[in-house]
Amino acid sequence: MKKRRNWFAPLSVLVLTGLLVWSLGRLVRPKYASGLTLEGSMVENWYAHAGEGHQVLFIGDCEVYESFSPAALYAEYGATSYIRGSAQQLMWQSYYLLREALQKETPRAVVLSICSLRYSEPQNEAYNRMTLDGMRFGRNKIEAVRASLLEGESELSYYVPLLRYHDRLFELTPEDAQYLFAGPELTYNGYLMRTETVPYTWLPQAPVLKDAAFGEKPVEYLDRIAALCEEKGIALILVKSPCLLPAWYDQWDRWLTDYAEVHGIEYINAIPLMEEMGIDLGADTYDGGVHLNVFGAEKYTLWLGAHLSERGLLTDQRQDPVIAARYGDLVLRYEQEKQRRTEK
Amino acid sequence: MIFLSSGFLLLVGALLIIYYVLPKRFRYLTLLAGSVVFYALAGKRYLPFLGVTIVSVYATARLLGRSQDRQKQYVTEHKKDLSKEALAAYKKGEGKKRTAMFLACLLINLGLLGALKYTGFLLSALRAPWEVHWVLPLGISFYTFQSIGYLIDVKRGKYPPERNFLKYALFASFFPQMIQGPISRCDMLSKTLYEGADFDLDRIGRGLVRIAWGAAKKLIVADRLIRFALPVFGSGYTGSLVLLQMVLYAMRLYADFTGGIDMALGVGELFGVILPENFDRPYLSKSIEEYWTRWHMTMGSWFRDYVFYPLNVSKPFLKWTKALRTRFGNGFLSRLPLYTATLVTWLATGVWHGAGWNYALWGLTNGVVIILSLTLKPLYERFHRRFPGLKATRGYGAFEIVRTFLLMCLIRLWDIYPTPWHVWSAFSSLFVNFRSGVLGSILPELSVGTGDWIVVLAMTALMLFVSLKKGEGSFRTKYLNTSVRLWTAAALLLILTLLLGAYGPGYTASDFIYGQF
């Protein structure tokens, strides 16, 4: 009896300390709710929709979350989808995010951006953070963090955000309290809307490619993604979005064509298909051809939707009342926001 | 690997579990294994140096012990059949052998320390055409001095040598004290180091509070103050900035060094090992002599017991004192041997801190100030006889504390500035170029925000509060006397440190200042 009493104080304090450290970590963590960088909360947003049974899961970097519009896909085909994307999401990060998603649901198709194959190593902490901070603690996060750590970074700080962001204590804003327990929902099923138009006029000439081979690490993770999809019976589609910078080389295109053929999967390079899709980089890009704006994204999405439909990978679920309600709201919110922004 | 790394925390956590799972008689082996792992993680190449010290000191101490036992036995057996002279001659002969062994061991260890630490400096001082950059094993000054202290104690017959090699190896290498001390004495430390402590949750709680308090001082104050680097204008110094620099450095050094010692003592406490206290509210000292009995106490007492006293009571010094007294009476000149012993001790203390003229001059300055203070003692006494009530007043007490604090800050100019010329320029600027108005324009330009100032000042106020409240005893014993208070304090300190500490990107990972010695 005495021993139990002895343990009571330390254990209670331990639990309370853990809760406090967790809450303070939530408080000081950047919320990415306003300003120029909004991409940091997207990975976390997915958990609210995990297990909704999406037909299509888009995975990758800005070439998915600014190129595909799940709202447009639903409005046209009645198909549900979600984007697990974040800024400069590296191939190994895409693998772990996909593996985590597939523990909750099994989509019919996974559309993977292969743009990040160019990166053999993690590039910088800020991008790492925007992808990994939002992941829930577990095996997937641990492995994703270990694969992504830069020299000098603390692994522990990815699990205990207070260790990394404690210095924000003196920079806190009302947003930090507002989004203490749930980050801001700034996307439309993972799509980050951009409505501005800055036409493509000129881009710097691509530097000569010294070594056409992709690095071992991203290719290894691409293999793992392909194996995972095959194991689950999911159609994997590799895509290169119609974005002109950074440059996409012919050698890479050929490598991916061969890779897709060997593995029996589909690879779509959308750059030469822009005309077919109706994409005009004079109007459909918000930053001179680097990323698509909402109008370009809708065209690209509808083209892909038609393609997936032809392959029998989409089903119209508009008759399902739960989905109709959920996606009705999504489309309404999406259209209202698009209208509000374009009217400005 | 430092106390604040996740590797160290993992090591301590693992050792804690293994320590209390193992039967009591094996527990010291856990600590030894932990010490070896700790040292190997700090740098495998350091291990041979530590090994040389452990083996040489252990073997010499055993030989000394055997010689003493042999002598005792011989004297007991032959007390009746040998004359006093014959016994004295035998003792002298044995004593000489022991001294030879002792000096050989001393030579090995001080030679190793000297060669590794001072060769580069000496070559540069002698303007030699070549340079050396030898490895300096972590904590070599601390473990060498601790081992030499042990050897001297054994030679003096203060206690018998440790027979168990592994136990001795643990005494010499116990990991919490390897970075910056404290410098322990074997007879004191062995009481708790070898016996294997019982599992006591409250004691572990007290240890954690001490670790968390140390981490808070180190990370919240010491490391944040690194940001407060003040600019220097042209070739000159501005007195007001020098004064601010002195005070900030004093705060940083205190928080850094006492923080590290708190962590070392706290880690020891987790395993029931009582390491000696190294500080007793030194900035509340009223004189420099008092200050040096309250700051880095284990180093001070080491130099006192193993350098100052042996020198001051050595035959040549006693003869010298006697000769001076006969000639000059009890005046200043008769105390020349005492002053010489003081200066030698302080020179050694300075040199122990590092290889550089500034360390030697720092030590000598301390010695000179202490001698001056001793010499002027009759004047103080006459002054206080004239104003008898003054010394008892709070105001005068505060004056003495501030005076001692500022005096120590001035001596530390040797620590802050790189050359005697810089030290002199900084010192003289306090009197000839103070320009207090400069502060107003400089402070806003520092790369520190209001938050930094608030955090540093609030934590300093908390340290002062704890110092004042704890009095002669321990704050934890006085105020954290229930399990709930203890664990809550540990948790609050941990959270405070995590939240307000200066660590992570944007900060230079700063090792403990005393680790470099």
The CATH homologous superfamily of chain A corresponds to SGNH hydrolase
Portion of residues within helices of chain B? over 70%
Largest interface: A-B, 24 and 24 residues
Helical/strand content category of chain A:
alpha/beta
Strand coverage percent of chain A: 5-15%
User: How many individual domains of chain A?
Assistant: 1
Spatial sequence of strands, sheet with the most strands of chain A: 2-1-3-4-5
- What percentage of the residues of chain B does DSSP assign to strands (E)? under 5%
Terminal Cα separation of chain B, in Å?
Answer: 16 Å
Radius of gyration of chain A: 21 Å
Concise structural overview:
Chain A is an alpha/beta fold and 344 residues long. In chain A, 47% of the residues lie in helices and 7% in strands.
Question: Which helices and strands appear, and what pairs or packs with what?
Answer:
The complex is a heterodimer of chains A (about 350) and B (about 525).
Chain A lengths: L1 H27 L13 H4 L10 E5 L1 H4 L4 H8 L3 E5 L5 H12 L6 E5 L11 H8 L6 H10 L7 H4 L2 H4 L8 H5 L37 H17 L2 E6 L9 H14 L2 E4 L4 H4 L16 H17 L10 H23 L1
Parallel strand pairs in A: 1-2, 1-3, 3-4, 4-5
Helix pairs in contact in A: 4-14, 4-15, 5-7, 5-11
Chain B lengths: L5 H16 L5 H16 L4 H32 L5 H42 L14 H17 L8 H9 L12 H8 L7 H25 L13 H32 L17 H4 L5 H16 L2 H14 L7 H18 L3 H19 L1 H10 L7 H18 L1 H4 L3 H13 L4 H6 L7 H21 L4 H5 L3 H18 L17
Helix pairs in contact in B: 1-2, 2-6, 3-4, 3-5, 3-6, 4-5, 8-9, 8-20, 8-22, 9-18, 11-13, 13-14
